[in-house]
Amino acid sequence: MNPVPPLTVPQSSTTTQNVTLPEEPLDLPDHTQLPDSNDDFVKNFQEHPQSIILTTSIEPLLKKIHPNGDYCIGQDSGIYWRFTEPPEKGVEAPDWFYVPGVPSRLNGQLRRSYVLWKEKVPPFIVIEFASKNGKEEKDSSPPPEGDEIDPETGKLKKAGKFWVYEQAVKIPYYAIFNGFKGTLEVYHLERKRYKEIKANRRGHYAIPEMGIELGILYDNQKPPTPWLRWWDNKGNLLLTGNELAEQAEAIAIRERLAKEQAETIASQERLAKEQEREAKEQAETIASQERLAKEQEREAKERAEEIASQERMAKERAETIASQERLAKERAETIASQERLAKERAETIASQERMAKEQERQQKEKLAAYLRSLGIDPEKI
C-alpha cells in the first residue's frame, strides 16, 4: 500500500439552522447523559456483519493515519448534532461513521454516543445502509418549526438525514449503500452542497484524502450478496480481520508447504548427490574392477603365453628327448646288432677254430694212425 496521505480534519461549525451552540457549553449534557438507544431495531441481518467488515478492514489504515490512536468509529451509534427536547429530535444514528482526531474513549469510558457540541469535530465520512428505496437516506428536509407528528411513523418529525449530514454537521463524505439492490451512491461536500461522485474505471468511489476507494464486492454465495468494501488507491482490497487471519494462515501454509517442499527438494538433492556419489564410486569401482579384470586378463594372457611357451619348450624338449631316445635306441640297437654280429663273428671264429682244431686233431689222428700204420709211434716223434 502507498504511504498514507495526511488527512486534514475538517473543522465543524457550532451554528446550525434554528440552533446556535455556545462555544464552550457549560450545562449541556454529554454522552453519558443522553439516550444511547431507542425502539428502532436493526433493519436486516446484513447490517451488523457489514459494519464489522467496514471497521476491521479500514482499522489498519486508520492506525497508520493516527499513530496516537485518536480516531473514532461509530456503528449504528448516535450523533447528537444539536440539543433538543426531547433529545431524539437532534440525533442521527448512521449505520457507520468515522471521526478523525478524537479519542475512541472519553475519560477511560467507551463512548455511548457522539456529542457534536462537546467534540466540535464532525465525522469525515458517514455511511447509511438503505433497506428500502433510500428515501429516508436522501431526505433533505430541514428541521420542522415546531413539534410535528410524522403520519408515516407516528413519531415527531425530524430533519432529514441528507440535510443533517450536509447542512448541519457538514460531513465531507456521505455514502448510501443498498444491499438489496446492490447500489452505492457517494456524495462529496463541495461549496456547502453534496455533489454525487462518479465511479472510477474500477467502479469505485475515490476518497483521495485517505488514499482509499469505496465500492461493492459480491461474495460467492448463491445468489451472490453485495458487500460494501474498501480498496486502496491502487485497487487493492483492504482485508478484514478474518481475511487477514485467513491470508496469514494461507501464507503460513504456503510457507510451510514451501519449506516442506524446499526440505523435500533439499532431501532429494542430497539423495541425488548421495546417489551420484554412490554412482560415481560404483563407476570408479567398476572402472577399477575393469582395470583389474584387464590386468588379470593381461596377466592371464601372459601366463597363458608363458605356459604355451613352456609347453612349446617342454614339447620341444620332449621331442628332443624322444629324438635323443630314438637315436640312443637306434645306437643301442646298432650296438646290439654290432654286438650280435661280433658275437656271431666270434662264434663263427670260435666255430672255425673248433673246426680247425677238430680238423687238426683229425689230421693228427689220421697222421698218427698213418704213422702207427707205418709202425711209427707218433708220440715219439
Please explain how this structure is put together.
This protein is α+β, with helices and mostly antiparallel strands. It folds into two domains: 15-238, tt1808, chain A, CATH 3.90.1570; 281-381. The protein is built from four helices and 16 strands. The protein has helices at residues 47-65, 116-119, 161-168, 241-373, and strands spanning 15-16, 19-20, 71-74, 79-80, 91-92, 96-100, 105-106, 109-110, 114-115, 125-130, 173-178, 183-190, 193-196, 205-207, 212-218, 226-232. The strands form five sheets. A six-stranded mixed sheet has the order 3-6-10-11-12-13. The protein is rod-shaped, with a radius of gyration of 68 Å. Mean pLDDT is 84; it is low at 1-6 and 8-22. Residues 270-283, 291-306 have a biased composition (Basic and acidic residues). It comes from Cylindrospermopsis raciborskii CS-505. Pfam families: Uma2.
**How widely separated are the two ends?**
179 Å
Shape: rod-shaped
Number of helical segments? Answer: 4
- Structural class designation: alpha+beta
The first-level CATH class name of the largest domain: Alpha Beta
Round the mean pLDDT to the nearest integer and report it. Answer: 84
Q: What is Rg?
A: 68 Å
Report the major sheet. Answer: 6 strands, mixed
Oligomer: single chain
Number of strands: 16
Order of strands across the widest beta sheet?
3-6-10-11-12-13
Order of helices and strands: EEHEEEEEEEHEHEEEEEEH
Q: Estimate the strand proportion.
A: 15-25%
The name CATH uses for the topology of the largest domain is tt1808, chain A
Domain Putative restriction endonuclease: 50-215
InterPro entries: Uma2 (IPR008538)
Biased composition (Basic and acidic residues): 270-283, 291-306
Region (Disordered): 1-25, 134-153, 270-326
